[in-house]
Structures are given as C-alpha cells and as structure tokens.
Amino acid sequence: MPWVVMAVALPFAGMLLALPLGRHAHRLAWAVLPSGLAVSVLLVVQVWRGGETVAYAIGGFAPPLGIALRADGLSALLVLTTALVVCATGLFALAEFRPPSAEREARASVLFWPLLFALWGALNAAFLGGDLFNLYVALELLTLAAVPLVSLEGKPETFAAALRYLLFALLGSVLYLVGVALLYGAYGTLDIALLAGAARSEPAAWAAGALMTAGLLAKTALFPLHLWLPPAHAGAPAAASAVLSGLVVKASFYLLVRLWFDALPAVAHPEAATLLAALGTAAILFGSVLALRQERLKLAVAYSTMAQLGYLFLMFPLTGGPTEAQPWSAGAWNGGILHAISHAFAKSAMFLAAGLILEAVGHDRIAGLGGIGRALPMTVFAFGLAGLSLMGLPPSGGFIAKWLLVTTALASGQWWWAVPMLAGGLLAAGYVFRVLNPALAGADEPVALRRPVPRRRQAIPLVLALLSVLLGLLPLGPYRLLWVGRPTAAEEGLG
Amino acid sequence: MNGAWLLLDLVLVPMILAAALCAVGARAQFTGIVFYIVYGLLLALAWVRLGAENVALAEAAIGAGLTGVLLLGALARLPAAAPAEPGADGSPGTALRLAAAILCAALALGLGAAVLALPEPAPGLADVAAAHLPATGLGNPVTAVLLVWRGYDTLLEVVVLLLALLGVWSLTPDPLWGGVPGPRHRTRPEGVLVFLGRVLPPAGLLVGAHVFWAGADRPGGAFQAGTILAAVWLLAIMAGLTDAPAVRGLALRLVLVGGPAVFLGVGLAGLATAGAFLGYPPDFVKPLVVLVEAALTLSIAVTLGLLVAGAPERPPR
Amino acid sequence: MTDAATLYGLCGAALVGIGLYGLIVQAPLLRKILAFNLIGSGVFLLLGAIAERAAPGRGDPVPHALIITGIVVALSATALAVALLLRLAGATGRSTLSPEPPPPAPGERNGG
C-alpha cells in the first residue's frame, strides 16, 4: 500500500464524508483519527525500514510531466507529529463540537470536522509534496482550512483577526507563486529534485528565491510580518489554536527548508541566511517581551509562538558548523527540526490547557487565575511541562533542540547567535512562571470554577506535554530517522 | 502579419495597464470594480493573443465575471462609508505611500529584469506533453495536464473550492444556520432580468454542455463549463425565477461533495486498475476523464454559484 | 513571437507591482481584495508569457493548466475574503482593518 498517498487521501475522504453527515460528523472522528494515525505510523515504518526516500509518481507519470510525492525522514517525522497533534486535538474537540441535540445540527459542530480533516490533509500534502506548484495549492488549502477555524465561534473580534490572517496568507502565497513561475521559466520543471540538479546562481533563481522566501515568511509570521498571528491564534477556539500554532505555521517553514536545502542550495547566499537569523533573533526577543506583557493567557501563549518560531530561523546560518561536540552530524539542522517538532507538542498542549482554564473559569485574565492549580492540577501541570520545553530546560525536546543550536553556534565561533537563544530561554521562563507562580500559590480566595472539567479531557494536554518532554529522553533512534534522505546541504551548510 | 500582431500588442498592453491603474486608483470603489471587470476582459483578449484559449475562457468567466459579481455584490451590501480624509480611516500618509510606491516599483523592475534574464532557448514541457498526448486519447493538451498528468493538482483544487464554500458558510449567524443564502429576489414580470432569466438558461445550459464536452479535445473543460452553468443559475436566482437552496439540504451537500468524491474514488481505484493513484488503465483514459469531468462540472457549478451567493441570510424554510 | 512573450511578461511584472501597491496602501478591505486579484492575474500573465516563450505560437500546456488552477484558487480565496468582510461589517460596522473604529458620524447608526 502506498502510505504516502493514503496519508493525503484519507483525511480528504474524511472531509468529503463529513459534510453530508451533518450533525453526525463528529462520529466520523472515531474512524478518521485512528486510521490516519495508523497510516502515519506505517509511513514512518516504511521510511525507517527502507532507509531511503520513498518516492511515488502520481498516476505513474514521472516528473517533470507528472507530480511526485516524496517521504524522507523529515517528512515522515512531521507527518507523524501532525497525526499525533491532530488526534489529540480531535479528541479534545469531541466534547465541544458536537450537536446540541439529537435532531438539530449546529453551525460550528457541523463545520469543525470537515475543516479539521481538510487541514490535516493539507498539512500532509505540504509535507509530502515534491512539486513546487502542487505545494502552492497545498498551502492555499491550508489557508482556506485554517482561516474559518479562527472565526468559528462567531465572536465579532475574530472576524477582523481572520481577515487579516487571510490577507497576509494570500499575499504570501501569491509571492511564492511568482517564484514558482520564474523557476519554471528558467528550468522548465517544478519538481524539487529535478530543480536541485538544474538550478544555478543567476538572476531568475535569485528573484525566485527571494520572492518565495518573502512569501513563506509572511505565512510563518516571522518578525516583522507577525502582526496577524497573535489575534488569530488567541481568538480561535482552543482546539483550533492548538493546530494553528503547533502545526500550520510549521508547514510554511518546512517549505522554506525544502526550498533552500533541497531545491536551491546552489543559489543560497550566506548573507541571506544571516538576514533570516537576524529576523529570527528579533522575533525571539520581541515576541518574548510581548508575551511577558500580555494580560490574557491565550494572547501570551500566542506571542510565545511568535518568539519560538524565531529559533527555527537560526538553523540557516548555523548548518554546516562543526559538530565535534555532538553525537550527530548536521547538529544545527537536526536542532531546528527537533525544535519545530517539540514546539508543536508543547504549544498545542499549552493552548489546550489554556482552553480548559478559559472554559472552567470563564475568563483567561492571568491576574485572575490565582490558585487555579488547586482546582485544575492536571491542566496546570501540563502547562508547566510544556513550558519546560519552551524554556529549553532538560529533560525536554526543547532542551535538546536548543542545545544542538547553541553548541553549534559556539563551536563555529558564531557565539552571537547563542546570546539571543539563551536570553529567549530566560524570557520564556519569565512568561511561563508569571502564569505558574500565582496559579500554584495558595491564593486567599481560590478561583471558583464555573463548571467542572472531566479528567479525561485534562489528560489530553498532559499527554501532548509529556510527548514534548519525552523527545528529550529518547535514545538516538528517532534522530536516525531524520538522516533518511537528508540533503547534503544540511551537513555542509548553505552558500 | 507579425507587424499587425505587434500593433495589437502595443495597444493591448497599455490598455491593460491603464485599466489596472484605474481599478486601483479610482476615487469611487464602484468605478474601481468596473475598471477591474474591463481589465479582466482585456486580459482575456491577451490570452487569446497568447494562444491560450482555455485560459481566456477561464479568465473571462471566472476572473472578470464571477470575481466582478462578487466584488460588486459586496460593495452593494457594505454600509456606505463616510467620505474620510486620507489617514482618518487607517490609510497611510504621504511618506508611507511614497515608501510603498518605491518598494512596489523596485519589485516590478526586479521582476521585469528577471523576465528579461530568462534563458534562451526557453525550457518547457510542450514537446514532452505533445509526445504523451496520443496515449491519453484526448485532443486538448491542457485537459490532459489538468486531469491526467497533474490530476493531483486538480483534485486538491476542487477541494480548495469546496473548502472556500465551507468557510463562507462558517460565517453564517447561528440562528440562520441551515438557511438560504442571499436576499429573496422578487419576480417582476416585465423586468428585463426576468426576460434574460427565461431566455438565457436554456442557451446557457447548451453552451455549458458544449464547453464541457468540447473540453476533451478543444478549448474548454470542467471549470469553464461549470462557471457558465453557475452564471446561468445565478441569473435565474437574481431574476426571481428560482431561489437559492437551503444549505442544510442533504441532496445539495451530496451534489457539492459528489465531484471531488468521484475524482478521489477514480483516483483510488487507479491503485488497483492502473497500479498508481490517479492512474487510468490505458484503454480507459478518455472515458474515465469524461466521467470525472462530468461529475466535477456539476459540483463546480453548484459550488461556484453558492460561493457568489454567500452565507445564509434567511432562516431555513 | 518571443518579443510578444517578453512584452506580456513585463506587463505581468508591472501588474504585480501595481497590485501590491494597492494592497499595501489602500485601507478599504474591498480595495485590498481587488488589489490581491490584480497581483494574481499579473502572475498568471507572467506564467502565460513563459508558456509562450517555451513554445511560440501554440503555448506550453503545463503553465496554461497551472493558470486555470490558479484562477480557481484565487476566486475561492476572494469569495472567502468577501464573506469575512461582509460579516465583519455586519457585526462591527467596519470595512477596514484600522486599529480604531472610525468615530460614528452624526446621524450614522452605531455599530452593533
């Protein structure tokens, strides 16, 4: 069975079934979520066992005329991460997005499920696509699934947030498309692997690379193109925030990695990598400081996403750095990818925890959450564990990721990149403890819960947070999966 | 001959640019949208000039037609904006405008330079496509790209279209969920719209069916045909001859997902019959493509029509 | 023939610039949506010019198919943006993304 195909086809089949099912759509989750997870696990096993990139020519037509799907270690790992996060948020959402009564269907509960399944399919299409134009369509799918989720609850302030998000995302994809057109004009192919062999450092490729990068940055909300992210991610329903912040912004970052490390390494310029890292640094610092200053929990978590995305961009100048101090080669590349994955688990855990708090207390003003730890111990513990990963404290996935990035920076003499990374960790500790301290302190009057939260719902963010921590405790095994089909530029560096 | 073409180009290109500038710069939004529609029609001419009749049809029907209707409809329903001083409504001041103008001019110039620097002879897939076309039994290479070689793109694209409709519906106010999109249009027996609404649908159906059927071998195809059918349907709705369907109807939902579902089903069947997802067994390429296109045309027509109609505004009947 | 391709390619580049200017500078959201469509069609024209360069006279069918896909995707996005705008205006009376809602003019209804 071609698991690459099923990973894309299955969620879309779920989406197409969900709409006619109407008020029964939520029942479909019990079929789509487990089978989608199973397909992702099987894909990982296939890539791991085979030890090489799985390539699949759709319709039997090989590129350049046809489109190929490709799964290397990186894609397989991201497909699995996506499946885990989507399954957890899906289970979480079952309590929220179900019909109010047996006869009537309600807007949000009918539409949430097809939107979630479409989002899943779009993410897998982006992680497995080998064709630059097809990836454009996948990005648009992702946008059109993500934007309605932001305003699904129908709160007036979310319409403006969703519209701003949509405009940024559309500008991003149209800039990306200009680059795709230029690359086709210059090399006559859209296939990433074929482009890698053909692309040379020349004006059309420079223009294409610059425009595609700018477009993808707008979609990844890298500073200073981050304005859309906090209101959109904070305003969405918790289950949607978890996938938007944990996964959706990673897809455009992933395409940026594919673009530079796989398709255009010959075109890359060290100065451009430095510029990306400088913007990443600014994102870390600004985002963290803004997260510290928020009065509302969900906004603080959203600004933290802006900051954590910044780390990802440090991998561009740091790849190719000496890795003697580390057990693995390509330390900075591994570090960047690992950070993307551990942040996906940690951030989705945080948003789900914040959602439970909001649901139980009726507000999410940080100042009014004193003593919440006694009322919702499991939820606050999950928030804290996820915070551990964001701070980069051992033992957590975030620790390994940041350790790989920082040691590469120091070993290659680029110590100045290490400074903002360490400062970002301290600031993250600041915004996490700003929530945890009063939450765990014995307040004079502990907050009253409007309604109890079942333990099995509280368990979901806890499992996600534990996954983000476990990433740091895993033996070397999973990282070897990342080596499958790893581009040479990941070891030798860009430019 | 070449000279005459060049003359046309030298007239058409400045007109396109002027229409674009007017669409952006017009003082009244209505004027801007009208210029945008004119721009779309000029662009369709440019596509004919570039030998891309398939694209010309799509551009005229979707780019100028449906997009224009969408924008005009939105303008009519927005509360009339109070005439504001520049800057009062959040529009940037002169310095920012200047900076934006410089940035955009630099981008256009850079892009232009990149176009001029494209290699000679130009690479492309025209010959590869021509060599593979006979094996499909189709005469229109663009249809072969859309439904056979890059069918995966098209599958995702029809999902995009459906997803956009779900997004539009997600903006329904909760009490109206399941209801009917748009206002109820009343019939005025003597109205010109009613006349058009009575005369055009049969003609439109014929043209739509022709464009769909011709698409296998000549310019046309599911998207162009679906757009024509959607336009005819919208016209009938606006003339008050029929009403938009309530969005809770099961039949409607089945029609909407039918096209993508048939495409996905044929694609998955390809795993067994042709050994590849979205592959077709050699002797059945054309019949299967026609089947997929037929299912797609209906779904596309209904989806496009409802996209333009917008979110439900009236409670379910 | 190549000259025509170059001419339309440059026209596409100019359209991208014009559209981007409108998108950045204009506050009314409907104008931003229109400007986005201008950028999109500029990119399509660029692709069309590339198709013409690759196969003068008949055109490369692959970019033509990409353009048709792109036109449909752009319409989908436009429809969603318009619906969001109408809902935003209905809920708040605003049709821009300005940080502060404009002060209601005398006699104008307050956004509800």
From TrEMBL, chain A:
Keyword Membrane (UniProt): yes
Subcellular location: Endomembrane system; Membrane
Example of a GO biological process term: ATP synthesis coupled electron transport
Membrane topology, from the record: Multi-pass membrane protein
Superkingdom, natural source: Bacteria
Cellular component GO terms held in the UniProt record: endomembrane system; membrane
MF terms (GO), sorted A to Z: NADH dehydrogenase (ubiquinone) activity
Keyword set, alphabetical order: Membrane, Transmembrane, Transmembrane helix
Transmembrane segments: 28-47, 77-97, 109-127, 133-150, 162-184, 204-229, 241-261, 273-292, 299-320, 340-362, 374-394, 414-433, 459-477
Domain NADH:quinone oxidoreductase/Mrp antiporter transmembrane intervals: 130-420
InterPro entries (alphabetical): CPA3_Na-H_Antiporter_A, NADH_UbQ_OxRdtase, ND/Mrp_TM
Protein name from the UniProt record: NADH dehydrogenase
Coiled-coil segments: none
From TrEMBL, chain B:
Bilayer topology annotation: Multi-pass membrane protein
Key words, A-Z: Cell membrane, Membrane, Transmembrane, Transmembrane helix
The protein's name: Sodium:proton antiporter
Residue intervals of the MrpA C-terminal/MbhD domain: 15-79
Domain of life: Bacteria
Localization (cell): Cell membrane
Protein's UniProt keywords contain Phosphoprotein: no
TrEMBL record, chain C:
Transmembrane segments: 6-24, 33-51, 63-86
Membrane topology: Multi-pass membrane protein
Disordered: region residues: 93-112
InterPro entries assigned to the protein according to its UniProt record, in alphabetical order: CPA3_antiporter_subunitC, NUOK/Mnh_C1-like
Localization per record: Cell membrane
Entry keyword set: Cell membrane, Membrane, Transmembrane, Transmembrane helix
Coiled coil stretches, renumbered: none
Listed GO CC annotations: plasma membrane
Alphabetized PANTHER family for the sequence: ANTIPORTER SUBUNIT MNHC2-RELATED
Family: Belongs to the CPA3 antiporters (TC 2.A.63) subunit C family.
Record's protein name: Na+/H+ antiporter subunit C
Protein source organism: Caldovatus sediminis
Species classification: Bacteria, Pseudomonadati, Pseudomonadota, Alphaproteobacteria, Acetobacterales
